[in-house]
Amino acid sequence: MNQPRDPYSFQVPDQPQDQFKSLTLILYVLYIVAIFSAGILAVIALIINYVKLDAVQGSLYASHFKWQIRTFWWYLIWNVIAWIPFIFLFFTTDHPSAFVGVALGGMVFCIGLMTVSWIWIVYRAIRGMLALSENKPMYSMQ
């Protein structure tokens, strides 16, 4: 005798590997575009990385997810370091005009380091996309 089917229960099919590849590629693109969104898209990509990390364990996509996660955290560290002199100079002095030279130096440091971090995140994403297109992991599997 057939049991009546519960309309509120469902079974989630296993995600095919192609969907993980597409997701990984989308996350790389989000990291690149994050430069133009004040990092908001990078935070979204990071959250997706952490949420889906268990699902990709044991596949080559796990190495890409770890690569992306490390890329985000280093990108964040570089940008925090870049903003420290800027924040210090503009919020801790009574007479900003007295420190014009120092402020200019801090601004050059901030912009320079942020530019380097933008180049670095684009490099890491492109390198990851190239490895992904060849179905290679980001780290050697020993």
From TrEMBL:
- Residue ranges annotated as transmembrane are 25-51, 72-92, 98-123
Q: Which keywords does this chain's UniProt record carry?
A: Membrane, Transmembrane, Transmembrane helix
Q: What is the protein's given name?
A: Putative membrane protein
